Amino acid sequence: MLTQDYKGQKLAEQIFQGIILISAVIGFVYGLIIEQFGWTVYIVLAGFAVSCVLTLPPWPMYRKNPLSWQPVIPESSGEPSQKPQESLKKKKHK
Amino acid sequence: MNTVLSRANSLFAFSLSVMAALTFGCFITTAFKDRRVPVDIHVSKVMLKNVDDFTGPRERSDLGFITFDLSADLQPIFDWNVKQLFLYLSAEYATKSNSLNQVVLWDKIVLRGENTKLNLRDMKSKYFFFDDGNGLRANKNITLTLSWNVVPNAGILPLVAGSGHVSLPFPDAYETTKSY
C-alpha cells in the first residue's frame, strides 16, 4: 500500500487545515449576509469534500521525499531460523 | 498521518471542531438581540358558561369563550439563528381563591420561510378557558397577551412577551345553553 513520507504528511495536513479554515470563514460571512445558517454548513461541507479529494489519496506530490533506507545486510546464520517457523506452520495447519 | 484512515480521521475531527466553532459564532451574533415586536389584539365577543367540570374537585366551573382578532408582523424576529417561533395567546387574571391564574387559549407554530405577517380575524380559542372555580363571572380584569418562544439553531430559547395586550371584563351572568 502506498504511503506518504514525512514531508508529504506535513504538506497534506497544512493543505486540509487551510482549505477547511478558508471555507469556514467564507461560509460564516456568506451565511451572515444572506441570513441562512444552512449555507454556512454547505460551504464548509464543500471545503471538506475538496480536502478529502486533495489529501486522502496518496498523490505523487506527497511522495517526493522518500526515506532512504540502509541497504540490506545479509545474515550470517540463515538456516537455524527457518526450522522453528516450519514447526509452527505444521501446528496451525488442521 | 501515514495511512488513508488516519488522515481521514484527522480531517474529519478537524472539520467537526471548526463546525462547532462556527455554530458558537452563529449563537454569539444573535445572543443579545431584542425579540419583542408590537402586537395588536382585539376581542370581539365574550361569553361565559357554568358547566360540569369532570377534571376538577368541584361540580361546576366557569367556562369562557372568547372570539378575537390578532395582527402582528413577526419579520424582524427571524434571523439566521431562528428556526421557528411558538406563539401562544394567554389570559391572565386574579380571582378570590387564586391570586394569579394564567390560561393558554390558543397557539401556533410559525416556521422559517412561512408567512410572517399575522392577520387573523374572528379566531376562536383552541383550548378550553376553564377557571379553577367560579371566578370568571363578573371578573373586572382579564388580560390577554400574545407571547412567543424563539427556537434557535444554536443557543438559548428565550420566552418573549409581545408588547401589546388587551384587558377586558367578563359578563356578570351565565349564558343559558341553547341546544340549537
TrEMBL record, chain A:
One of its GO terms (biological process) is signal peptide processing. The chain crosses the membrane at residues 15-33, 39-59. GO terms for cellular component: signal peptidase complex. It is a multi-pass membrane protein. Residues 72-94 are annotated as: Disordered. It is found in: Endoplasmic reticulum membrane. Its main location: endoplasmic reticulum. It comes from the Eukaryota. Keywords: Endoplasmic reticulum, Membrane, Transmembrane, Transmembrane helix. Component of the signal peptidase complex paralog A (SPC-A) composed of a catalytic subunit SEC11A and three accessory subunits SPCS1, SPCS2 and SPCS3. Component of the signal peptidase complex paralog C (SPC-C) composed of a catalytic subunit SEC11C and three accessory subunits SPCS1, SPCS2 and SPCS3. Within the complex, interacts with SPCS2 and SPCS3. The complex induces a local thinning of the ER membrane which is used to measure the length of the signal peptide (SP) h-region of protein substrates. This ensures the selectivity of the complex towards h-regions shorter than 18-20 amino acids. Component of the signal peptidase complex (SPC) which catalyzes the cleavage of N-terminal signal sequences from nascent proteins as they are translocated into the lumen of the endoplasmic reticulum. Dispensable for SPC enzymatic activity. Belongs to the SPCS1 family. This is Signal peptidase complex subunit 1. It comes from Amphiprion ocellaris.
Automatic annotation (TrEMBL), chain B:
It holds the Pfam family SPC22. One of its GO terms (biological process) is protein targeting to ER. Its main location: endoplasmic reticulum. It is found in: Endoplasmic reticulum membrane. Keywords: Endoplasmic reticulum, Membrane, Signal-anchor, Transmembrane, Transmembrane helix. The chain crosses the membrane at residues 12-32. GO terms for cellular component: signal peptidase complex. It is a single-pass type II membrane protein. Belongs to the SPCS3 family. Essential component of the signal peptidase complex (SPC) which catalyzes the cleavage of N-terminal signal sequences from nascent proteins as they are translocated into the lumen of the endoplasmic reticulum. Essential for the SPC catalytic activity, possibly by stabilizing and positioning the active center of the complex close to the lumenal surface. This is Signal peptidase complex subunit 3. It comes from Amphiprion percula.
